Amino acid sequence: VLWATQLAAAYAPDLRIVTTVAVAPAADLQALAAYIEGPSSPPVARLNGLLLAAAWHATLGLPYDGFLTSEGASIVARLPTACPDTPPAPSGQPFTPAAATDATLLAQLQANSPGATRAEGPILILQGTADEQVPVDTNRAAASRLCAAGDVVRLDILQGVDHSGALADEILTIGAWILDRMAGL
Fold it and tell me: CB of 91 within 8 A of CB of 121?
């Protein structure tokens, strides 16, 4: 949603964006990659990293040879036929240390993180402190980058809330935020 807002003027110049709401977004991909490659990242976060690696390999032609462990390569090979709601999660670290230092990969992560240009309308980011997929610090960094681009950003840190709870627990906050923006506030 942050990318859609940032690119809206080019794709739909007649569309007037009054606000954007991003719930636990993967908005700072370099910081998120560092988390995924760290020793405390859970299997679901590591799987998200593998899904991104597979997608970039298929769409951008980015190689992942040398960046994946044997387990990571095995999972990526099974992704095209895995059921969408039950892809295989890695039991260990699926990325090699080379992934963390590859200049091409790091540049792609930065290029695909929103915040290079100003978006239309204020932005609300909701992020739980117990999020098992997107650590709070990655969205603190993303909010700072968006502000530096000229965006008006409100970052709500939700104590004890996990990844899916950020949306479920804050639906009234989200609704009120959108209605206020639509009313011109």
Answer: no
Higher pLDDT, 20 or 166: 20
Task: Tell me what pLDDT residue 64 has.
Answer: 80
Question: pTM above the 0.85 mark?
Answer: yes
Tokens of 154: 């409100």
Give the separation between CA 79 and CA 94, rounded to whole angstroms: 14
Render the burial of 142-164: b for 16+ CB within 10 Å, e for the rest.
bbebbeeeebebebbebeebbbe
Give the burial string for 112-141 (b: 16+ CB within 10 Å, else e): ebbbeeebbebbbbbbbeebebbbbebbbb
**Rounded-to-integer distance, Cα 29 and Cα 109, Å:** 5
| Whether the Cβ atoms of residue 2 and residue 122 lie closer than 8 Å to each other | no
Q: How far is 136 from 25, CA to CA, in rounded Å?
A: 10
From the DSSP assignment, how many helices (H) and strands (E) are in the chain? 8, 3
